[in-house]
Amino acid sequence: MSIHNLDHLFHPTTAALVARLGAAAPGDRTLVANLCRSELAGRTVVDLDGTPRPADLDPGVHWLSSLEGLAPDLDLVVSTTPLAEMPGLLERLQPLGVRTLVATQQRRSLGDAALEAAVAGAARAAGIRVLGLNSFGLIAPGEGINVSRFDVQPRPGRVALVSQSGALISTILDMARERQLDFSHVVSLGSLLDIDFGDIIDYLAWEPEVRCLLLYVENLASVKKFLSACRSAARVKPIVAVKGGSSARGRELIATHTGRPSGEDRVYDTAFRRAGIIRVESIRELLASGEAFCRGPLPRGDRLGVVTNSGGIGVLVADSLARRGARLADLSPALRERLSPCGTTCGGSINPVCIHSDADTENYVQVLQLLLAAGEVDTVLVVMAPSKVSSPAQVAERLRPLAAASHVELVYIWHRHSAEHSATLHRLIGQGDVIYQSVEEATTAYCYARQYADNLAKVVAVPPRFDRTLNYRQEEGAARLASLGRGSTGLAADLDREALLGAYGLPLNTTRVAATLQEVTTAGGELGYPVAVSLAAGPGTASVWTPGELPGAYRRLGGDGAIVTLRRMVRDVRYELKLGVQTDVEFGPYLFLGTGGLLPGIPDDETVMLPPLNRLLARRLIDSSGLAARMALREDEAEQLEEILVRFSQLVVDFPVIRELVLDPLTLARNGFLVQASRLVLEDRGIASPHHLATAPYPNQYEFRETLKDGTPVLIRPIRPEDGESHYAFLRGLSSQTMYNRFFGFRNEISAEQMARFTQIDYDREVAIVARVEQPEGEITIGVNRLTYDPHNGQHEFAVVVDDGWQGSGVGRLLMEKIVAIAMDRGIDTIYGMILATNTAMLSLARKMGFEVVERDHETLTVRIYC
């Protein structure tokens, strides 16, 4: 379901409360009061108990005792009626054209699960979006809307708060009032019966008054929708989350009161990072992050300077930044020399720059002018301890234009708390200055902003290519899994597991089976010495160091007729790893990497990540585990481990039946990595690939090999993140007219962020296919077609462009045919596109393919086809 109807939830003009007020709970009375105060064209209370209209009720509020008198086309209904009455209520609201409903009812017992399912079914049948159950309602202060049970009425702000727990929102609103933090929206999601985090994030991320989103999350109704919405939104607005249920007992409580399990904390942690979400551990941190993102712009870089008139506070600033992983900029010798006369004898030339405690306004301005002019910092924290000779207001006002001209952000720390300074502080904040009253607040805010900036930088990073194509023998892997699924045991199971891993190119310490001395001798020679020879059934192992020892060892194990296995003994092992996959109750399969072998297992040693992996994500997994430094990996070894991770990830992607697979140990020795042992747990859950994954993988089912009109072979396939360089060359090669036809305007340059949007797409909500041909200089892109989903209207739009030199070759038609076929495969019933009226070639192609013109203006035509 699209989020189109959410306009009626967040921007209603008419609303009604349907309740039984005969024995109203305090929350119901608060709802009535809030609805009556809301700035709506139509406000109605329907009391099904038939109590008389209160004498003091606003005369503009309609009071009814039944649904019969409700006006049609209501935007929003709030219901507090018992859960058992909800299915019937939804059926009666459908003819009235109701679009959205807030349901405050909550599950009273496990037996209510059937009632919840009935409510969900009735809502779908009626086409009504439901917020709840157990929702405390929502507030949109800027719209003058409050249909909630909250006593606190927040002022209009730029922070959107979305929480599963309504009671927790009450606490957050009280704390936020103390901090003077205001909200654009406050949403209590409740049990996620219908409207969930993904819907709300998709909607609020594009509301102009929202600067950042704060979340309290316990579990998710749709993991894929949540991650997809967050990946999209986090590119334009920060998302900060507190995750409840970091402990096993906490997750048990969540499952009890929501009726839905909550996944492992470490899996949520990696999922949040993958989606660009900043995770914090407390409500205070959540509110601090909201303040940080609303008070000032993001840092332009990570070069941070500090100027202070207190050496002690300078030390506290440096310590606070270090605890949060931030570092101060190293100032050049030339700048340090220029700053030296302005500082104290104890270190005015280093960063933090410590000036005299009695420094006046001119001293501050002089030092900051030098810093701004040098171009060596992106942000400066300006600490102003109380002083009789310096004026913080004058410093801020004089430096404001200089900072803007030099593109440096100034953040002030004022250790003043008098009423006079409070008034000045609020005046300057209103003029755009960023001012905090403690070291912790300022450094915390800076680090949140830097973390978000770092997340954005990771988004635009282009994954490096491997120097060869990675091939997999999927059919062989499927055959081995089928054998294991039929119950192969013992040596047969060991060989099936080994063949499964081999089919995906994982480096194996291969097992050879022999039953005669000749076979044993041949196997030993092929494997190389030393080898371990073991009886296939029963105890008995011999270590053989030279070919001459092998016959005697085999005779001691039984001689001709005895079935044995031979494996090479790996010497000079530098490190033993553990690589595996397990299945989370919410997110499905996740990969983990840590120390393995005979060393005792340490849970914290394992680092996890959701599949699928590309080479860039594989390197991040290695780096975040700390193993690269601990193992002193050479670059070629790091690249080999990257390839192993990518191959292992593909195995997990291809086979949902794998519930658990652990390679332990995965050894690093003189000749590289080798899998020494593995264990496998299968579970057929009736899920086809890739639906078992939280994040959509590269859709290789949409790869097509075709031929152009002149016989040139062309590969049409989905775009990959690794295509960044070639896609940039393709766009740069387009003529100005072709660029205008595609983008409805001229583009002189494509930024790194725009290129990331073009190539690092979310396969859950869009598809981009490229046409590639071989040329003497290598494979190049000659065309691209995109199918993009807009959650606001539920429509899918195509956009195609072909290189000038290949127009008329037939590639445009192929790209259009394939995008229509992909839409049909995905169950999309309609696609549309916008074409310039002057683009006659594209209009002709669209008509030939069966598109119809459904809208036109003087410049563009909108075409549509039913798939």
Walkthrough of the structure:
With 867 residues, the protein is of the alpha/beta class. It has 28 helices and 36 strands. The strands form 7 sheets. It has a 7-stranded mixed β-sheet, sandwiched between helices. Helix 19 packs across helix 20. The protein is globular. The two termini are 19 Å apart. The model has no long low-confidence stretch (mean pLDDT 91).
Number of distinct helices: 28
From the alpha carbons, calculate the radius of gyration and give it in angstroms. Answer: 32 Å
Percent range for β-strand residues: 15-25%
Biggest beta-sheet profile:
7 strands, mixed
Label the overall shape: globular
Features:
867 residues, globular, six-stranded parallel β-sheet, 37% helix, seven-stranded mixed β-sheet, alpha/beta, 28 helices, 36 strands
